[in-house]
């Protein structure tokens, strides 16, 4: 028996919220009633869903009456404030913030990686960090086949990771630079136009950023393996949308690039783009607005004297698979 569900999108006017609405429509999610919620200043605006204009309402603690699934993308503070109201109303919160990811009773889910974890939710399911999602869609199938032991990740993260304001700042600064106008960074700590910033989120005493440790801790949680050794360097790059990552992987068992391509070609949510002779490899411009994670530059790690190491390069749409699409896929699992 199929049925339709009452869905709420919280943060409906943000970059991810807008994409959530589009994704619900594109994937033909069985929506009976769609409620769009945002701050008081956005209330009264409209958004389109399946040809109908829906008026955006102000988010209040009474907003979730009759709602089955609430997709949240309005930041950690809002998620924490409204969690009890959502659960009390009998809805399931699918949260895109970092608020609950590491709580032991909250499943952290990527449907291609650990769909079975949805079953033990207690009213809240967390969406992982966008970089973790993009990484794990590619790495999890290899881990299942050959058992991952250690990973060194370097990320090339688009300005979309800082939301609509981050993307706008890149466009504005590019124009200013080309016109020799003065620049005043707001969304980022430094100028992002024609620059790289090896700093995403706040720093800890050990020299790592919060973003880098999210990738470590979330991966261990989702792969159910606290012995995994992971180190990351996260870098913001002057790209509008879609994150890329260079991953060095060490496995317990030997693996060749050919084996890896075969495993990845059969994996859900992955598209192998790996033909250097034809100049084909993953790039953010090609991953933009795609559901799949692009994987390529698959090669044996030549720094080792065995065949237990691989280097791969991945690109994935941060706003889609890194956020909105993953949330809607969790709703589909529910």
Give a written overview of the molecule.
The structure is a single chain. By secondary structure, the protein is an alpha/beta fold. It folds into two domains: 5-128 and 324-333, 3-Layer(aba) Sandwich (Rossmann fold), CATH 3.40.50; 132-318, 2-Layer Sandwich (Dihydrodipicolinate Reductase, domain 2). The protein is 29% helix and 24% strand. It is built from eight helices and 14 strands. Helix 1 links the parallel strand 1 (5-10) and strand 2 (31-38).
Reconstruct the topology from this structure.
Blueprint (H helix, E strand, L loop, with lengths): L4 E6 L4 H12 L4 E8 L7 E4 L2 E4 L1 E2 L10 E4 L3 H13 L3 E4 L28 E3 L3 H17 L1 E10 L5 H16 L31 H13 L6 E8 L6 E9 L5 H9 L4 E3 L11 H4 L5 E8 L8 E8 L3 H14 L1
Parallel strand pairs: 1-2, 1-6, 2-5, 6-7, 7-8, 9-10, 12-13
Antiparallel strand pairs: 3-4, 9-11, 11-14, 13-14
Helix pairs in contact: 1-8, 3-8
Which labels suit this protein?
about 325 residues, alpha/beta, Rossmann fold, Dihydrodipicolinate Reductase, domain 2, 2 domains, 6-stranded mixed β-sheet, 8 helices
* Number of E-state strands: 14
Global outline:
globular
The structural domain count equals 2
pLDDT under 50 segments (min length 5)?
none
Please name the CATH architecture of the largest domain.
2-Layer Sandwich
Based on CA atoms alone, the radius of gyration comes out at 20 Å
Output mean pLDDT: 97
How big a fraction of the residues is strand? 15-25%
Q: What is the makeup of the main sheet?
A: 6 strands, parallel
Class by SSE composition: alpha/beta
Which superfamily, in CATH terms, is the homologous superfamily of the largest domain?
Dihydrodipicolinate Reductase, domain 2
How would you name the oligomeric state of the polypeptide chains in this document? single chain
* Order of H and E elements: EHEEEEEHEEHEHHEEHEHEEH
How many helices in DSSP terms? 8
Distance between the termini: 14 Å
**Helical content class:** 25-40%
What is the CATH class designation of the largest domain?
Alpha Beta
Write the CATH fold name of the largest domain: Dihydrodipicolinate Reductase, domain 2
Largest beta sheet: what is the strand line-up? 5-2-1-6-7-8
């Amino acid at each position: 028996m199929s049925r339709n569900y009452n869905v709420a999108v919280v943060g409906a006017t943000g970059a991810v919220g807008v994409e959530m609405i589009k994704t619900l429509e594109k994937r033909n999610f069985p929506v009976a009633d769609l409620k769009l919620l945002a701050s008081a200043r956005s209330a009264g605006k409209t958004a389109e869903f399946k040809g109908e204009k829906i008026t955006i309402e102000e988010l209040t603690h009474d907003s979730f009456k009759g709602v089955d699934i609430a997709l949240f993308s309005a930041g950690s503070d809002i998620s924490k404030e409204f969690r009890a109201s959502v659960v009390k109303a009998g809805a399931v919160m699918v949260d895109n913030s970092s608020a609950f990811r590491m709580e032991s009773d909250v499943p952290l889910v990527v449907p291609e990686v650990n769909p079975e974890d949805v079953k033990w939710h207690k009213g809240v399911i967390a969406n992982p960090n966008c970089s973790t999602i993009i990484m794990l869609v590619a790495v999890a199938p290899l881990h299942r086949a050959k058992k991952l032991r250690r990973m060194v990740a370097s990320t090339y993260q688009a300005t979309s990771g800082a939301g609509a304001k981050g993307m706008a700042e890149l466009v504005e600064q590019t124009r200013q630079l080309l016109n020799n106008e003065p620049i005043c960074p707001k969304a980022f700590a430094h100028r992002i136009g024609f620059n790289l910033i090896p700093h995403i989120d706040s720093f800890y005493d050990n020299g790592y950023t919060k973003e880098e440790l999210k990738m470590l801790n979330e991966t261990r949680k989702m792969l159910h393996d606290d012995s995994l050794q992971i180190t990351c360097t996260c870098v913001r790059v002057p790209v509008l949308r879609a994150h890329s990552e260079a991953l060095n992987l060490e496995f317990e068992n030997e693996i060749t690039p050919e084996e890896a391509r075969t495993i990845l070609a059969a994996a859900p949510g992955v598209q192998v783009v790996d033909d250097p002779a034809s100049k084909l490899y993953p790039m953010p411009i090609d991953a933009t607005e795609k559901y799949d994670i692009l994987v390529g530059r698959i090669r044996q790690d030549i720094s080792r004297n065995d065949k237990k190491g691989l280097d791969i390069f991945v690109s994935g749409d941060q706003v889609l698979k890194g956020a909105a699409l993953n949330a809607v896929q969790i709703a589909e699992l529910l």
